[in-house]
Amino acid sequence: MKVLGIESSCDECSAAIVEDGKILSHVIASQIPLHAKYGGVVPELASRAHIVDIVEVFKGAFKEAGVDRNEIDGVAVTKGPGLIGSLLVGIEAAKAFAYAQNIPLVGVHHTEGHLLAPLLGTADGMEKPAFPFVGLVVSGGHTNLIAVRGVGQYEGIGHSIDDAAGEALDKVGKMIGVPYPGGVHIDKLAVGGNPHAFEFPRALPQHDNFDFSFSGLKTSVATQLRRIGHIPEGQELSDLCASVLEAVVDSLARKTIRAAKKIGAQTVVVAGGVSANRRLRERLKNDCANEGLRLSIPPLKLCTDNAAMIAGLGTFQLRPLVEAHKGFEAFDMQPLPGWELV
Length: 342
Ligand code: KG4
Ligand code: ZN
Description:
This protein is of the alpha/beta class. The protein folds into two domains: 2-115 and 303-323, ATPase, nucleotide binding domain (Nucleotidyltransferase, domain 5), CATH 3.30.420; 122-297, 2-Layer Sandwich (Nucleotidyltransferase, domain 5), CATH 3.30.420.40. The chain is built from eleven helices and ten strands. It has helices spanning 32-36, 43-65, 84-101, 110-116, 165-175, 182-190, 215-228, 234-263, 278-291, 300-303, 308-323, and strands spanning 2-7, 12-19, 22-30, 74-80, 105-109, 133-138, 143-150, 153-159, 267-271, 294-296. The strands form two sheets. The chain has a five-stranded mixed sheet, with helices on both faces. Strands 8-7-6-9-10 form a five-stranded mixed sheet, with helices on both faces. Strand 4 (74-80), helix 3 (84-101) and strand 5 (105-109) form a beta-alpha-beta unit. The longest helix is centred in the last third of the chain and has 30 residues, at 234-263. The protein starts with a strand and ends in a 19-residue tail after the last helix. The structure holds 5'-O-[(R)-(carboxyoxy)(hydroxy)phosphoryl]adenosine (KG4) and zinc ion. 5'-O-[(R)-(carboxyoxy)(hydroxy)phosphoryl]adenosine is lined by residues 10, 139-141, 166-167, 169-170, 181-184, 187, 272-274, 276-277, 304-305.
């Protein structure tokens, strides 16, 4: 079964063709340069850029796969959560294609796509996850610990009560004057830095608390920057970035391992943009090895926003529709910008 996946929830416009869990093509048009000068995603600009990019990513996905449009069995598109204008572009493009081909269209949950992305592929020789697993979804919009007992069987264990981990890193990035997205630059700058040079708080440390909070970290960075009296450079900047990252990674890793033990999972999955982070990967690799847990992280291209994960997840939902020879019925599909998974 060949599925066309479409993702346009934020600032990446992406299309991919996935056949029974195998990625045939995967095209991403990133808008990072467009938004960088504003220090964050400008929703109005994002939706306008999607209108232009979507045609090219569609064409690119078909060309790369060497697949004709008549070979596609079903379409999956991100229905939410995300920016409403951006979501609308992907949904309407998906509707147009599925209507023209008279094939089924499903709208899928973006975070669920991240969570199941390692089923499509993993990095560094890691194994694909087996159920049940604990999923840590860490992105610019989400920090969630989720018990995953099967596709569609989720239970929330914890979440951030204020900023998402990626959002906090992006905001710190703004304070220290690095381009958007700050998380990516902090990751690079932290290499060679001393993670203990600055003291930053770890919020909600109680053993039975699985929630996260990163607003105190932000305040603490602002306070320390005021104390120093300048924006650090060189080694001092590396030390600051390494220390900020250490505080974020420490909270994420500790609670993830504890959550795995709590639900009796053998596997830990990490997904979402922040799972690209080197320090987070290294720390979880060590912690999981020490605790006898398997770690499953997707390759970089499947960590940040992408349509392959949407097609992969959509395959599960489309299969019964395709087998029942359903045509296009999703005329009234609407974006759900605030859709909660658990
Ligand atoms: O999943 P994603 O592409 O989009 C959302 O759904 O939010 O995640 C983007 C987030 C941004 O906050 C970005 O700074 C962060 O992921 N990010 C990273 C790294 N790569 C992306 N944070 C730390 N280290 C990275 N290497
Ligand atoms: Zn995402």
